[in-house]
Amino acid sequence: MKVYFSKFISGVEEVVEDFLTKQKTEILHIEDGVVIYKSDKNLNDINQIDFFNSNLILLYSFKNIKPNLKNLTKIALNVSSKASFLKKIKLNISNKREGFKVISILENNPKQIDIRTLSKIENKILKLKTLYLDIKKPKVELWIIIRRSGIGMVGLKKITKPKLKIKREKGTIRYELAAILSVLSDPKKNDVVLDPFAGSGVIPIHRASFFPFEKIIAAEGLEIDVKNLKQKIRKSRKRIDVQLSNALDMNLLKDGSVSTIITDPPWGEFKKHTKISEFYKKMLFEFCRVLKQKGKIVLLLSASIEFEEIVKNNFQDKLKILKKYNILVSGKKAIIYKITKI
Ligand SMILES: C[S@@+](CC[C@H](N)C(=O)[O-])C[C@H]1O[C@@H](n2cnc3c(N)ncnc32)[C@H](O)[C@@H]1O
Asked: In the listed set 125, 158, 191, which residue is the last one of a domain according to the structure?
C-alpha cells in the first residue's frame, strides 16, 4: 500500500470521503481540499480520478508546523539528510532517465526556498543517475509543502497526460468541478441526462466519457455557442445530442423525458430587465416539466443568489434540496445543490 496526498475543490470533502471509502481506501487525514490516504492503486490509476487536481506519493509528513519560509527550508534540509530520502524516491520513479524539479509551497502558494538549500537538495537527488534537472518540463516533481493547518509534507508528483483532453476556454467550468457534479448525480446506465446551459460542453462530455448512460442532451441558447459546442462534441467522439434551445422553454423535450439535469446556469442577468430570481424561477418550472418523478438536478450556482428562497416559495411540493456544498469557483463563493423532483 502506498500513501497518497491528493488535492481537490475545497468544500466537497464529503463527496471525496464517500468515493474513497467505496474504493477500499484508508483515509488517514482529510481537510479543506486535501486528503491523505492509503491505497493499493498505483499513481497512474490515482491520476485517473478526475476530481483530484494533484496527486503526490507521500514520502514524509509532519504535524504542527508553523507555516513559514524558515520551516519550509528546515523540512527541505531535514528530509534530504535522511538515509531513506533517495531510497524512497528511487522506489517510486521509473528506470528511464527523466527530468525533475523541486517545488516548494507555503499555504497553497509557491514559495521559493533559499538557493543554497535548493541546490543542496537538487544535488542530492542528482545522485540518482536516472534523474536530471529540468525546471521547464519536468516529468517528476518533488513537492515540499506546509499547509495553513500546520501539516508539512514532502511528496513525489509524476506529470502524466490528462485522461480527458479538453482545452479550457474562458467562462467554462473546471474539469474537476464537472467531475464532482457528475459524481453527485448518482450516474446510472439508464440515465437520460440534460445540460440545458451547456456552453462549451464540459459537463456533458465529462458525463459521457466516464459513466454509462442511455442518452445525453447538450442544449445551449446562443447560436454561436451551439456551433462551438457541436465542434467540441464532434472532436470528443461522444454520443451526445446537441440542441439549440432556450432553457426556459425547451419545446424539443417532452414532459417527464429526462432523468438527470446537471448544469451550470448563468450567474448574472441573462437579458436586460430579466431579474435573475425570475430567471431561476422560470428555469425551475421548466426543469420540473421535463424531469421525470424522482429525477435529479445537480446545479452549480453563485452563493449570492437567494436560491433556497425561490425553492421554498415556489416549489415546496415539487422539489426537495437533498444536499448543498459550499465551494469556491475562481475565488467566488458558490454552492452546488443536489435536488430531487418529489
Ligand atoms: C455559465 S455558462 C455554462 C458554461 C458551461 N458549463 C461550460 O463549461 O462551457 C452558461 C451558459 O448558458 C447559456 N445560456 C444563458 N441563458 C440561456 C438560456 N435561456 N437558454 C439556454 N442557454 C442559455 C449561455 O450562453 C452560456 O453558454
From this structure: 158
Q: Counting beta carbons within 10 angstroms of the beta carbon of residue 270, is it exposed (0 to 12), middle (13 to 18) or buried (19 or more)? A: middle
Q: Which residue has the higher pLDDT, 224 or 268?
A: 224
Residues 306 and 222 in one domain: yes
Site to probe by mutation for ligand 1, drawn from 220, 225, 305 as the one with most ligand atoms within 8 Å of Cβ, is: 220
> Is residue 172 lining ligand 1, measured as CB closer than 6 Å?
yes
In a domain, 103, yes or no: yes
At 196-221, the pLDDT tens digits run 999 999 999 999 999 999 999 999 99
Residue 243 near residue 233, CB atoms below 8 Å: no
Mean pLDDT over residues 333-342, rounded?
Answer: 96
Number of helices and strands in the chain (H, E): 10, 16
Which of 197, 233, 269, 300 best tests ligand 1's pocket when mutated (most atoms within 8 Å of CB)?
A: 197
pTM for this structure? Answer: 0.88
Distance of CA 199 from the midpoint of ligand 1 (Å): 5
Q: Alpha-carbon distance 89 to 199, whole Å?
A: 43
Same domain assignment for residues 206 and 268: yes
Q: Which domain holds residue 240?
A: 175-341
What is the Å distance from ligand 1's center to 271 Cα?
Answer: 12
